[in-house]
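Hey team,

Filing this mostly as a record. A colleague (T.K.) asked me to run one chain through the structure pipeline before their review meeting, and I want the input and output archived in the tracker in case anyone asks later how it was produced. No errors, nothing strange. Just documentation.

Input sequence:
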Amino acid sequence: MYRFFGKITPKYANAQSKDVHYLLTNNALLTRNRISKWDRNVSEFCKFCLNKGNTIKETNFHAFVECNRLKEFWDKFAKFFRTFGLPLSDRTKIFGPEISDKSVTSKILNACLQVAQNTIWLTRMEYELKNVENNEWKKFKTTIKHVLKIYEKYNENKRIISMIIEKMEII
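Output structure:
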């Protein structure tokens, strides 16, 4: 289970984010497309896109990359990633950045992506179960700041974390 997390230790991303990342990379999240195979009463189409008249199956890839609801979120996240010189491709959105160095910044950015995936999944579930609309970017910023503040208490790299939080504020 932890083969994907060689670059990340528990102090960089919370357990729930790691779980969502693991399920996402192994195509095991319970999207509407998968649930509809077991329950005929559940539509296999993305609820967000269906509201706009599009009939697109909700697969892992659609739920995390293609869905129009996420366009603004990924645009902002890409801008955030580019400030560190990293591109954000569709593959990166699912599997994380291919980072060869072992720097703290790289590990934290990878953890940021996992928290982003978790935020997307949670906001989709809130909408699915409670019809609650959420702003993914705002929720992501709140969550990641909390994660980084906890890490900041236990690490001497306060400058790096402050810089990451600062860059996020600008976006």
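Quick notes for T.K.: The mean pLDDT is 77. Residues 100 and 106 are 9 Å apart (CA to CA).
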